[in-house]
UniProtKB/TrEMBL annotation:
Top-level taxon of origin: Eukaryota
Similarity-based family: Belongs to the CDPF1 family.
InterPro entries reported for this sequence: CDPF1 (IPR042426), CDPF1_dom (IPR018785)
Pfam families noted in UniProt: C6_DPF (PF10170)
All residue ranges annotated as the Cysteine-rich DPF motif domain in the record: 10-93
Transmembrane segments: none
Record's protein name: Cysteine-rich DPF motif domain-containing protein 1
């Protein structure tokens, strides 16, 4: 197991979704080396992926308020940066 794997809990502050995550960052060790995300994401290893390569993106941190939000369309959006729907609705986003 890589030293980059964190094995902590992700919690969406909008829908209260909670799950263990394996990595937070933009270059997960269990994705192909060519894949680098434009944002820091929370992700887990894909338990069904061959050779343990692959993952599932859970969410990220709002670029405006910093709260963690899942990728559900009811909780966040991504347009150059991740934004929680609360900040998007009040026009408080920074992009």
């Amino acid at each position: 197991m890589s030293s980059d794997v964190q094995n902590e809990f992700f919690h969406c502050t909008l829908c209260d979704f909670k799950i263990r995550y394996d990595y937070k960052g933009n270059n997960p060790p269990f994705f192909k080396k060519e894949i680098k995300f434009l944002e820091s994401v929370y992700c887990i290893r894909d338990p069904f992926a061959d050779d343990n390569l692959g993952g599932i993106i859970l969410g990220g941190d709002c670029s405006t308020c910093g709260k963690s939000v899942c990728v559900s369309q009811n909780c966040s959006m991504y347009n150059l940066k991740r934004c929680c729907l609360y900040c998007a609705k009040v026009g408080n986003h920074s992009y």
